[in-house]
């Protein structure tokens, strides 16, 4: 038996949550496997017991269905002690035996050690891509992406992922520029959530001039800022103070109310919530708004200071799903441990019109 691992990247410190989630995904596919992790490494290796199971796993995995994993691929070879004057030849040998790729992602982990390889990976990307192109191993129509994950400058995992079911971004990380006039850094969390969790169609339908939103736990206004940028009229609920410049836009009404109790009379187009509260309380609140039809779209954070984060997330999302089902409401949801999230994940729920596809 010589099984190669499936590799999943996550935020350092979240390896056991990522492993628990991958294990649960495999169980749901009736596949047996086991995870190998090291604390703060920023990744998980997952092994299945036979080739047939590996094939099924490869066909089932979808990054959009995983919360704690940012990126994944199926490793085909682990190259160690790569000659520093010619790393490309051994990589080429593996690639030519496997498949053509649409693009090559030269990646490193998000751990302290991994980030030290960032410059090297950037530099290596161009020559390796040119060589692969020359060898006819890069093709626009290929269904696969090639991953070169460097663990050291002479140590590389080579593998493949299917286009569309893994991230097309290096390391699965969406890098965003902090807008200078935003009131807080957490503005990037909502920007990333909007781009990652909502489809282009949904963004267009909801984020438009004149639409309305509520921001629960809004101060100082980083999330409200994002909504205002899209032209929405925002009701910001928080006892704390809102950014003065943001208030001058006249797109924001600030109410010093308890966000756990307050509800608008008329429904709004979108609800966002970044309150520091127990995740089960936030989940209950989101279910209340969605079931009452006070919003069609909700983006919220679940803060996760506890140990068993995957279990907590499962319980909270399961509770919202149960409540919507009990009320006979169709829905779509997706959740992600975003790059800009720390001890929290971001969730998107949408009430669907009955029988409407995603
Ligand atoms: C992480 S901060 C929000 C940051 C904000 N999203 C931003 O981008 O600037 C959490 C906020 O939730 C507010 N908060 C917590 N519990 C609340 C409650 N029950 N009612 C209203 N606001 C609450 C706090 O006052 C705090 O300002």
From TrEMBL:
SUPFAM superfamilies: S-adenosyl-L-methionine-dependent methyltransferases
Domain Ribosomal RNA methyltransferase FtsJ residues, every copy: 184-281
InterPro entries associated with the record: RlmM_FDX (IPR040739), RlmM_THUMP-like (IPR048646), RNA_MeTrfase_FtsJ_dom (IPR002877), rRNA_MeTrfase_M (IPR011224), SAM-dependent_MTases_sf (IPR029063)
Keywords, alphabetical: Cytoplasm, Methyltransferase, rRNA processing, S-adenosyl-L-methionine, Transferase
Protein name: 23S rRNA (Cytidine(2498)-2'-O)-methyltransferase RlmM
Source species taxonomy: Bacteria, Pseudomonadati, Pseudomonadota, Gammaproteobacteria, Kangiellales
All copies of domain Ribosomal RNA large subunit methyltransferase M THUMP-like, residue ranges: 86-161
Superkingdom of source: Bacteria
Residues in the signal sequence: none
Any Pfam family the entry gives: FtsJ
GO molecular function: methyltransferase activity
This enzyme's EC code(s): 2.1.1.186
GO biological process: methylation
Keyword Repeat: no
Residue ranges occupied by any RlmM ferredoxin-like domain in the UniProt entry: 6-73
């Amino acid at each position: 038996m010589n099984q190669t691992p499936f590799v999943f990247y996550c935020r350092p410190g979240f390896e056991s949550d990522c492993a628990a989630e991958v294990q649960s995904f495999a169980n749901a596919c009736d596949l047996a496997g086991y995870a190998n992790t090291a604390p703060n490494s920023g990744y998980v290796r997952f092994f299945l017991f036979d080739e047939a199971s590996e094939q099924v796993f490869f066909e089932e995995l979808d990054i959009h269905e995983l919360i704690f994993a940012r990126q994944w691929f199926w490793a085909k070879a682990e190259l160690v002690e790569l000659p520093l004057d010619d790393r490309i030849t051994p990589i080429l040998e593996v690639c030519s035996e496997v498949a053509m790729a649409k693009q090559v992602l030269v990646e490193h982990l998000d751990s302290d050690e991994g980030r030290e390889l960032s410059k090297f990976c950037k530099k290596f990307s161009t020559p390796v891509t040119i060589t692969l192109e020359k060898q006819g191993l890069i093709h626009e129509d290929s269904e696969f992406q090639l991953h070169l994950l460097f663990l050291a400058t002479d140590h590389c995992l080579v593998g493949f992922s299917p286009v569309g079911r893994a991230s097309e971004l290096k390391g699965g990380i969406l890098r965003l520029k902090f807008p200078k006039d935003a009131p807080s850094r957490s503005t990037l969390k909502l920007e990333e959530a909007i781009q990652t969790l909502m489809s282009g169609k949904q963004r267009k339908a909801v984020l438009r001039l004149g639409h309305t939103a509520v921001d629960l736990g809004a101060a100082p206004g980083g999330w409200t800022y994002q909504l205002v940028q899209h032209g929405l009229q925002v009701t910001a609920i928080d006892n704390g103070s809102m950014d003065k410049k943001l208030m001058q836009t006249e797109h924001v009404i600030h109410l010093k109310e308890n966000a756990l109790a307050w509800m608008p009379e008329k429904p709004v187009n979108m609800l966002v919530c970044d309150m520091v509260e127990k995740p089960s309380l936030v989940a209950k609140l989101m279910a209340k708004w969605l079931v009452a039809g006070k919003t069609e779209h909700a983006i919220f954070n679940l803060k996760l200071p506890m140990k068993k984060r995957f279990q907590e997330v499962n319980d909270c999302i399961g509770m919202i799903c149960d409540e919507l089902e009990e009320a006979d409401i169709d829905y779509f949801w997706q959740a992600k441990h975003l790059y800009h999230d720390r001890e929290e994940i971001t969730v998107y729920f949408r009430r669907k019109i009955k029988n409407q596809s995603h």
